[in-house]
Design goal:
The protein is built from 6 helices and 21 strands. By secondary structure, it is of the alpha+beta class.
């Protein structure tokens, strides 16, 4: 037995050429059989468009060992799903009662307000997706859509001035994205302009691709999606007031408390400085900043230094978050997305979660966790079994240096990324807070009537 790790690495490196030779023996590909062979897992390779590839020895060796994307050989079904998106640039978002923020949001009806998250797109593996984005003349220059986690054709990737032009803010324009959804799983879409400012403001949504073979997934009874996301309320309030006057400037910190007043004034001064120091320009090639010209990105771009204080699940902060309802004895699938820029640590009380998929792909060996780490942009699918009746907290356990704890509203507990796993028909029996006196254990679960009337 090799017990020295360094010696093991040396032996592995010495054996690598022989292993590659063995794995590539008899592995000759032809363009005719590549697609079918990839689906059957015999080690051949196809491109994202489904065409055969003339692969190198190393690539063929990886494919022979099973390390090629199993979804690339999926044939198109011929089903076409068409969507039209508009951007609501005067969107007023209310994450919880008394807090209204200005932002951006996608909508499928130009006469209706946007939503956060945006409209869910749900198709079957192999279907063709065609989305036309209508970019109307507005306050800000251009928007795009990136299909996060989906291997789309290059021209549909949604990266401004790399894969597409961007409509100047004084013009109307459209751009159409089209791709075959070969990869089953949980994905999402979002704007890339001024990343992550437009995402923070609300420009994102879920893309769910159902597998052609339903037996690919472990069995479950129902499913729900949970999207975790944060905003900087003061920045969005100030931006909304400055942009279109439909929001009052933020005065919450300008109180009689001298420390609150000083904090608020400093924050507003920094926001004003960032706006004044924004990188300016237009699509005609005229550039300029307060620090001199730049010639690598032909658009106006605001300086963006958020201090997140508003934390949401599906666009709402506790106590206005919707509960996750489960029945005793059933298995619930939760598709979780971190659409924010901060790391999340999602903890469920009273249960363990079976992690089955990461970034859309099923795990060979699902595993149990009670606290789930979600990196920015990451998706994880979990199964919850209804084995412990009650009203159980499901929340982000994390905080970030300089930011508020994730279960607060404007830094005050409770709030933010908090919801409840509620068993259908469960009677809290005595957990309702008394009309007067001290709050007792368990009362957090039922501050909002939405958690009781189930």
């Amino acid at each position: 037995m090799v017990t020295d790790p360094k010696r093991f690495i040396r032996i592995s490196k010495a054996l690598l050429p022989a292993l590659l030779l063995l794995s590539t023996a008899g592995c000759t590909m032809t363009g005719d059989d590549v697609g079918e062979a990839t689906k059957t897992g015999d080690g051949t390779l196809v491109s994202a468009s489904g065409a055969g590839l003339a692969a190198t020895d190393a690539t063929r060796a990886l494919a022979a060992a099973g390390y090629s994307d199993p979804y690339l050989g999926v044939e198109p079904t011929g089903e076409l799903h068409e969507f039209e998106f508009w951007v609501d640039e005067e969107f007023v978002h209310e994450p919880y009662e008394g807090m209204q923020l200005w932002g951006f949001a996608f909508t499928t009806d130009p006469d209706e307000p946007g939503t956060v998250p945006g409209p869910e797109i749900r198709v079957t593996q192999g279907d063709t997706v065609r989305v036309t984005l209508h970019d109307r003349a507005g306050l800000f220059p251009g928007h795009t859509i990136h299909w996060h986690g989906v291997d789309v054709p290059w021209k549909s990737d949604g990266v401004p001035f790399v894969t597409q032009d961007v409509t100047p803010k004084d013009q109307d324009g459209t751009y159409t994205y089209e791709f075959v959804a070969r990869q089953a799983g949980t994905y999402w879409y979002h704007c890339v302009m001024e990343f992550p400012a437009h995402i923070d403001a609300g420009m994102f949504g879920m893309l769910i691709v159902e597998p052609q073979d339903v037996e690919e997934d472990l069995p479950f009874d129902r499913e729900e999606t949970l999207v975790f996301h944060e905003m900087d309320s003061q920045l969005l309030l100030a931006a909304g007031w400055a942009a279109n006057g439909n929001m009052d400037p933020d005065t919450r910190h300008l109180s009689s408390n001298p420390f609150d007043a000083a904090e608020g004034l400093q924050r507003q001064a920094r926001i004003a400085a960032d706006v004044a120091g924004s990188v300016t320009g237009d699509a005609t090639g005229v550039y300029g900043t307060s620090e001199g010209p730049r010639d690598y990105f032909p658009m106006w771009s605001a300086r963006y230094r958020p201090e997140y204080d508003t934390f949401m699940i599906d666009g709402k902060s506790y106590p206005d978050t919707e509960p996750v309802v489960i029945k005793e004895g059933e298995t619930l699938r939760l598709r979780m997305l971190n659409a924010g820029i901060l790391h999340k640590s999602i903890h469920l009380h009273g249960h363990h979660m079976l992690v089955t998929h990461i970034d859309g792909y099923p795990l060979d060996h699902p595993h149990w966790e009670d606290t789930l780490n979600l990196a920015p942009g990451e998706r994880k699918d979990v199964y919850i079994q209804g084995t412990n009746a009650g009203m159980w907290s499901l929340h982000d356990h994390s905080g970030s240096s300089g930011m508020g704890p994730a279960v607060t509203n404007d830094y005050a507990f409770p709030g933010g990324m908090e919801t409840m796993l509620v068993y259908e028909g469960f009677d809290p029996e005595g957990a309702i807070p008394p009309p007067e006196g001290n709050v007792t254990a368990g009362d957090l679960a039922v501050y909002s009537p939405r958690y009781v009337d189930r």
